[in-house]
Amino acid sequence: MSDIATAAPSPAAAEPILTVNNIEVIYDHVILVLKGVSLAVPRGGIVAILGANGAGKTTTLKAISNLLRAERGEVTKGSIVFEGEQVQSMSANALVRRGCIQVMEGRRCFAHLTVEENLMTGAFTRRDSSSDIARDLEMVYTYFPRLRERRSSQAGYTSGGEQQMTAIGRALMSRPKMILLDEPSMGLAPQLVEEIFEIVKKLNDEQQVSFLLAEQNTNIALRYAEYGYILESGRIVLDGEAKALRENEDVKEFYLGVGGEGRRSFKSVKHYKRRKRWLS
Amino acid sequence: MDLLGRIFVKPFQDMAAAPDFLIQVVWEGLVSGTLYALIALGFVLIYKSSRIFNFAQGIMVVFAALTLVGLHQMGVPALLALPMTLVVMFFLAVAIERLVLRPLVNQPDIILFMATIGITLFLIGFGETIFGGETKRMITRELYIPAGSTIFEPFGGFVAIEHLDLTALVAAILLVTSLLVFLNKTRIGRAIRALGDDHQAALSVGISLSMIWVVVWFIAGIIALVTGIAWGARAGVSFALEIIALKALPVLLLGGLESVAGAIIGGLAIGVLEKLFEIYWGQPLMGGGTETWFAFVFALIVLLFRPQGLFGERIIERV
């Protein structure tokens, strides 16, 4: 069994906080969405999962955070190890308590709750004193000063950027060791996207939160992440240091929109077929 | 012309002629409206937190009242039977979560709705087996609920206010206030509202569904007990009580399935309007008996103009 752990492509850093070993995900008992995905996130790292629509980024994150079951999805093969513990059969609630929380795609704030109430829901699983929670609320407000101004407005009426901040702040309130961040750039102005990623970087530096983020915006994701995995139709087709990926000709062509000589016909577009072989 | 006069003029002349009687009618409407509101509130809470239309709310009223009276008949002192009934309602909530909701999680809404019909049938059978099916007297005196009435004399007439009704009203107000405080000020209350807004997101921040469901069904049980005591005191405790739960349906249509305020205002409005209609229009024009259908027709008319109900939660949408 120890082979499985070594089989995972491990980034340079030694001890991963999260390892995903060759997982397969099936929705509704029939639809195979992930066909053996493996990845690892080093402690204190920022790792990006890249890929187009429907490649399986969100499914990968939800498989880790155990939100799949709510959508009738199921991890049928492989294992997920967080902090040295198998977590694939845990409830989302138990996982949040262990320090791994997901910020879902599209913000998903509680529209009828105020911004501050939204943040406080993130502390649901915490058992420590209310003064500790109040201190963390203060910390969230120092990272997101704009939320302090909007603290008593209904989250449904705040702007997209504020909602994204609320969603990240809400996750922070659970005192996570790791945040699974799904598509933080979605629907936001480029400047705001930059701002959100700056804060992610800062949280990573100052709070030692590890991040696994799923992004379509390959460009920005590879600037902030240290390591990247490229997902296509439920398989990882390429992975490497962010810098190496940025230089990679294929990545440039398919995901960064540079390179190639002018317009090309669809026929000549090449698809990755490289499949990794795993032991399990 | 005469008919129009009897519809549009005469009733109001009657009201003006005997204001004390009008007050009496409105008061009685308010009291039954309070009970409709309470039942509707039970529906709203469960619907908000789990998207389940809980058909069993009505039978829970009967079951709670039956348990209370039944325990007393078995020789448990009334003041001990009350907390014991609460314990029974708590275990009922746990059992429903474990045996019905958890196995059916993520199934289509209609399946869960059917499951609540199953719960209804089970509770009817179970209650009847244990406590018997005959109509029982509610143990109001043993619970120190005051009997008798106070008489006011406004405008030279008189209005009688039953202490029983007054107690029911006060209890309902206390219950609703504490519920609102609970929903707005506590960790679990916040989680219940969050769950109502976005199920998946609530899961993602680690809110535990099973825990919230037990809490919500237990609250519905407490509400059922209060309603059961109040209604049982007026009409006796029997399975016929279940019918009043049907009255909660027009209240829900009127108030919107998701609004706590809507349930309360809708309940009071239906209670008062159906009494007024019965006394001033129903009896003189149609020979009475309008209370059984008025609420439904009224809700139907409202729905024609406001499909989301009078107080349906405002849908906040932004992109």
Average pLDDT of chain A works out at: 86
Count, helices of chain B: 13
* Number of strand segments of chain B: 2
Number of helices of chain A: 11
Number of domains of chain B: 2
What's the N-to-C terminus distance of chain B? 56 Å
What profile does the largest beta sheet of chain B have?
A: 2 strands, antiparallel
As residue ranges, the low-confidence spans of chain A are: 1-13
Task: Tell me the β content of chain A.
Answer: 15-25%
The helix content of chain A is: 25-40%
How many structural domains of chain A?
1
| Overall spatial form of chain A | globular
- The general outline of chain B is globular
Q: Which pair has the most extensive contact?
A: A-B, 38 and 26 residues
- Profile the largest sheet of chain A: 6 strands, mixed
Q: For the largest beta sheet of chain B, what order do the strands appear in spatially?
A: 1-2
What is the count of β-strands of chain A?
10
Can you tell me the CATH architecture of chain A? Answer: 3-Layer(aba) Sandwich
Query: Helix and strand succession of chain A?
Result: HEEEHEEHEHHHHEHEHEEHH
Question: Would you mind describing this structure in some detail?
Answer:
The complex is a heterodimer of chains A (280) and B (319). Chain A has a single domain (2-108, 176-268), classed as P-loop containing nucleotide triphosphate hydrolases (Rossmann fold), CATH 3.40.50. Chain A is 35% helix and 25% strand. Chain A has helices at 2-7, 57-65, 92-98, 115-121, 130-143, 145-149, 160-172, 190-206, 218-224, 242-247, 249-256; strands at residues 16-27, 31-42, 46-50, 73-82, 85-86, 100-103, 178-182, 210-215, 227-232, 235-241. A 6-stranded mixed sheet of chain A has the order 6-7-8-3-9-10, with helices on both faces. Chain A has a 4-stranded antiparallel sheet with strand order 2-1-4-5. Chain B starts with a helix and ends in a 14-residue tail after the last helix. Chain B is built from 13 helices and 2 strands; from the N terminus they run ααααααββααααααα. In chain B, a hairpin with a 6-residue loop joins strand 1 (149-152) and strand 2. Chain B is globular and about 65 Å long. Chains A and B meet through helix 3, strand 6, helix 4 and helix 7 of A and helix 8 and helix 9 of B.
